[in-house]
Amino acid sequence: MLKRLVYLLLFLPMACVDPYEVEVPEGEQLLTVEGIISTGPGPHAITLTRSATYGSIFEGLIRPVSLATVVVRDNEGNVTFLTEGADDLKGSYFTPANFRAQVGKSYTLQIRTAEGKVYTSTPEKVASVPAIQSLEIRTVTVPTEGSEVPKSGIQLIAGVKDPADQNNFYYWKNGPAVYILETRPDLYTPRPSPSNPNRTPQPKDCCVQCFRYEAGNNQSLFVVNDDSFNGLTTKIPASFIADDGYRFVNKFRMDLKQYSISQAAYRYLRLVKQQAEISGSIFDPPPATIRGNMLSLDNPDEVVLGYFMAGGETSQRIYVDKNDLTFKQNRAIIPDDCRVISGAFIDPPADWKP
Amino acid sequence: MKKIYLLVFLFFGLMAAVWAQTPAVKREVIGRDIGQLKGIKLSGRITDEITGEALVGATVRIPELDLTRITDDNGSFELDVSRAEYTLEFRYVGYETKIYPITAVGDARITIKMLQEDFTLDDVVIYGSDPEKNIRSTNMGAVTLSVNTMKELPPFMGEIDIVRSLATLPGVSQVGEASSGLNVRGGGVDQNLIQFAGAPIYNPSHMFGLFTAFNPDMVNDVTLYKAVVPARFGGRSSAILDILPKAGSVEKFGGDFMLSNFSGKLSLNGPIIKDKVSILGGFRISYINWLLQSLSNTTLNNSNADFYDGNLVISAPISENNESTYSYYTSYDDFAFASDTTISWQNNAHSLQWKSKLSEKLKMETVGFYSLYDYGIFNQSGLNNFKINSEIKDMGGRTFFNYALSPTQSFTIGAEYKQVDIQPGELIPTGTSEDVLPKKVQNEAGREMAAHFQHELEIGEKIGLSYGLRYDLYQYLGARTVRTYQEGTPVSDGSAIGETNYGENELIQTYDGLAPRASFRYSFSKASSVKLGYNKMYQFIHLISNTATIAPSDVWKLSDGFLKPQIADQFSLGYYNNFKGNIFETSVEVYYKDLQNVVEYKDGANLILQNHIETELIPAQGQSYGLELYVKKNLGTLTGWISYTYSRSLRRVITPFEEENINNGTWYASNFDKPHDLTLIGNYKVSTNTSISATFAYSTGRPVTFPEAKFDFSGNNLAYFKDRNQQRLPDFHRLDFSVNFKLKGEGKFFDGDWTFSVLNVYGRKNPFSIFFDDAPQQPPQAFRLALLGIPLPSLSYAISF
Q1: Is there a contact between B759 and B791 (Cβ–Cβ < 8 Å)?
Q2: Would the ipTM clear 0.85, i.e. be above it?
Q3: Which candidate in A6, A18, A20 is best for mutational testing of the B interface (most B CBs within 10 A)?
Q4: Out of B780, B785, B792, whose CB is closest to A54?
Q5: According to a count of CB atoms within 10 Å of the terminal CB, is the N or C end of chain A lower?
Q6: Are B798 and B752 in contact (CB under 8 A)?
Q7: B320: which residues sit within 8 A by CB, 6+ positions away?
């Protein structure tokens, strides 16, 4: 908001922004924990990574932490082991599919890394979550500098009947989605290669329509506490799904997950949200230390990043028709059989009931 | 053309004589002759011939008796003489000296009108009213800058800037190139009480600090108290900035007009009732908005940056010994970029002042004021439309009596009352849909009361002593719902265990305290002295801001049961020496300041529309100390000053809860800790109508926090910050330059004044901030934001008529 003064000065042009060489203290590679276990159906995932130095030049990647022993322990002493995924899912640890957290219980996450270091979270208590009463679709456009066509997408507005007798903290995540992908096999042109120098189109007969699966994208964080609507039925923006030119060409389906989280987790997510929305202007709030709930048992001074959350979960499925959008991006064209696209299949999911 | 009037009124009003004379000597007999030989009282008042304003601090001298008097706040003086022949000399800086030979035969009252020196004078004088005031006055750390002095500095964007001019003095700094307010001796911007004609002002800036919101044509002088503050001031813990408006002329109409590349202003003044009631009105408006609209860039067409300020001053002498002044001040700003969110703020301040001379020795001054600061954020993006309104209302008055027991001793006693009402924020949905819930933060109300006295005395020529005591009483009032928190846990939403409802005007919390003030002077000679001072101040209102500047997103919060008043204790010691008949003025000052209950924020505090802001705040301790060196050349074709400050401003947060400590409870640099701060200012009079001036400023870069690591959460690359303020921005330095050329107009009209100035002559890109951006398809990188990255020229033309 206020950073816009800077834009004005940039235009006038008095101010300027340019790359700057700066000495950043060599950071340690800190263990980072992310994940939520919930009352919803499993498996639930916990992801372990190591941080990288945030320097003036490219200084390292965030790497997954593999081969750790990860367990979830509840306040009655029950222990659940998590197993690490393979390939792309290295560094992600999954509970058994039948594992569900229970309302009222407290859970702690315990980690032993391959180097033998032991970490634990503070207990997180699972609170109950009211159901999503309704979901509305709203088209959102984001004016974009230097572009005639604004970016756009849809916002899902969740209706919530907030219980009056407790302080609630809500967190929404986009769950898995499926949509009808439409391609143009009739425009297929093979890539020229020594064996095939021919650049004339070779139309394919099949297939125009596929069902494409994708994992939930959660770059925008939606968290809220019930301070301003305790005990009321209200509507809150709970999700944003960007229009990439593919998703809203025909039909789109997504499961929106609504969690009740602890107050500390809410605070953590709010800090993450605040930082993710900063863009480095003079009016930005001063940088905040984002403290999580993980501790090292070997060295209490060691910083562990991230947050282990436990919460109640409820989920609502929504089908979005192309006509639900009041503004759409131009359709993106893939000149090929839709089945060649990763995550795309010709058969509809068994429960596809638009 | 020199015209001199000396008006002599007989003390008993029996007879009046008016005559004009040239310096060619004609001895005048004054007084009603009743055969008195000794104890003849000559009293009088010195005023500006043009404006009718009292000249405060002018010198009256009788060389035959080696007797010197300085005029008081009302421009008055009194002389005890015997029946004899004398020469009366009247001097005031910037005015023509007057010398009158007289024969005193009885009590008389004299009115002297002095004429401002023509600016054709080759020499520039930049001291205030009294060249030896720095040595002789017992009060420490009070600096008065007259607008005439500020005129000798290079203008900022075409105009004199009051706040920036003060920042060139030792011990006074600003956070960066666009920041509101001043940091005085390691204090925050909210720790200064800014008063315009006695009414408090909350936001002294236009465009987030690019311009100061006071029109310099309306200002007579500005006094900054940074060390020992007289007991009649209080309520803020660092400093007092007392801005006094000009008065209009009681004799004839006149005005000023100025155009620069960013703004234009016009002021008019003159008598409503000739020789009695004068009026002064001024208005300044920016045309940045008009410039934006005329650009072809669509983003800029849809942007908005407006500001204006206006003043009205009416002065009416009720009687010979009573003067009243009404002042109204307003300033307005709105700002929008690409027209979705508009931010606006407005100051309104009314004050009515009554000065009375009850007897020759007893004077009284009373001020009543009402000020309203309101600010808002308007979202008209079409999605989630809303507005957030906030306001602060101050209403009150103060009065004090000054009794001059003898020429070397005086007492001041007085009282103050103020009611503060704050509406911290109300969100009103303005769209058609219901995606934003209306929200209103509870209003706050408080009363500040104070009683004070001060005793000033001189013991011989060498020793001066001034001590005072102020009793501050503060009440926090309902209606309000106050939470109770579980003991032994950090104050947070989760540890709230109950609520108490207080009714309208019901007392919720009281704080009180004694604030002693004392300063001591020992003069080695007329040209050198040493001073020692102690000062304690209380502050009951806090600026809760998580940005570096005063912005409409800030919250002003009264002290309550959770947020204790800030308390500052300051010790200062100074040595002052003038050389070569006051041509050079030098000083060395050291200070140590201890601050209690400074506000710090929990990490990522949520301040806007926060009903329980105590859950976001942590009390901090502060300390600051410094050494200030100052050398000033007051007279000559080359004038100016060098000020250097070494200072530290530190904060520490220790709470019973380890997780709430900041930087593990160690001392760390505050946001405005800039250890080395050097300013060089020079003004050179090239010829009678051309002068050039330059300012060079250097300071250590301010502290910043750099991330220690980056990590990923939910698809966002995040920075991990560990300890606050451990790194610094690169050093700040900048050279400004200006040329002033005065057109010698024919006749009295159109004495034009061209000023060309360049800010940041060598185009230094002083970073306001360094930030880290991890945009896709590029390595994470540090970026520098420089608000003034190029040499910025400006041109202004001013005429007086």
Answers
A1: yes
A2: no
A3: A20
A4: B780
A5: C
A6: yes
A7: none
